[in-house]
Design goal:
243 residues; 3-stranded antiparallel sheet; Rossmann fold; binds fructose -6-phosphate; alpha/beta; 7-stranded parallel sheet; 10 strands; 7 helices; 30% helix
């Protein structure tokens, strides 16, 4: 694993964007695995800036996102499709037909998970997968568990996640209780993995995930078994590891 220590969030975002843009420049028709959450937003902003300057071209890129809430359509502002449109896709020249997010409106979980898994295979796999890291070590919606869930699957959200999300919805019935997510094997099959972490609140989990035992209780720890992982963290997030 290669670890890049950044000064702060802005520097982390720039370093991560550099790695993503190197991928796009070296293989213009690459498949990018993308993530939502707060951590990658700065990297997406940097990519947009470089695109607007004429330094990047996304016209041949294909993207596949990690996850999506089941039951939400792309025009719901809490959906991950909406997040991606708003934070990246609407601002660069990626072909809308080449951007893929699990379909939250598909009620048949088995069907949607198989479709998404087949799609990734048909694209020849993911060249570069971007990941954020949850405080409990989750990646995508792969939460701590007794075993590694391998393929794209439908997850029951924990009550605490459902309660935390409730404030974003007008009524309780609208709050998603399930999500579709790439599985651990789906993620591990990416040729290269880029993990972004920022903030002191991530320092403990960075240490457990990348320097502790490999266990499904810390899903990100499996990344220690991947031979091409780059971790970009700011000083605060890397403050508990010796580098
Ligand atoms: C996002 C995702 C999540 C986040 C993780 C970290 O698509 O799958 O696993 O990467 O929850 O979120 P932030 O970056 O908000 O700390």
């Amino acid at each position: 694993m290669i670890i890049y220590k950044a000064k702060d969030y802005k520097d982390m975002s720039r370093k991560a964007a550099n790695i993503i843009s190197a991928q796009v420049i070296m293989k213009p028709d690459c498949v990018l695995g993308l993530a939502t959450g707060s951590t990658p937003i700065g990297a997406y902003e940097q990519l947009i800036e470089w695109y607007k300057k004429g330094d990047l071209d996304f016209s041949a890129v294909t993207s596949v996102n990690l996850d999506e809430y089941k039951g939400l359509s792309g025009d719901n502002d809490q959906s991950y499709r909406y997040f991606m449109q708003h934070n990246l896709f609407d601002h660069v020249n990626i072909d809308p037909k080449s951007t893929h997010v699990p379909n939250g409106t598909e009620a048949d979980s088995a069907k949607e998970c198989q479709r998404y898994e087949d799609l990734i295979q048909s694209l020849g796999g993911v060249d570069l997968q971007l990941l954020g890291l949850g405080h409990n070590g989750h990646i995508g919606f792969n939460e701590p568990c007794d075993f590694f869930e391998t393929m794209t699957h439908c997850v029951d959200l924990t009550q605490s996640t459902i309660d935390a999300n409730a404030r974003f919805f007008a009524t309780k019935d609208e709050v998603p209780t399930q999500a579709y997510t790439m599985g651990i094997k789906t993620i591990m099959q990416a040729h290269k993995i880029l993990v972004v972490v920022s903030g002191e609140d991530k320092a403990d989990i960075v240490k457990r995930a990348f320097f502790g035992p490999v266990t499904p209780q810390v899903p990100a720890s499996i990344l220690q078994m991947h031979n091409n992982v780059v971790l970009v963290g700011d000083e605060a997030a890397l403050s508990k590891v010796d580098l």
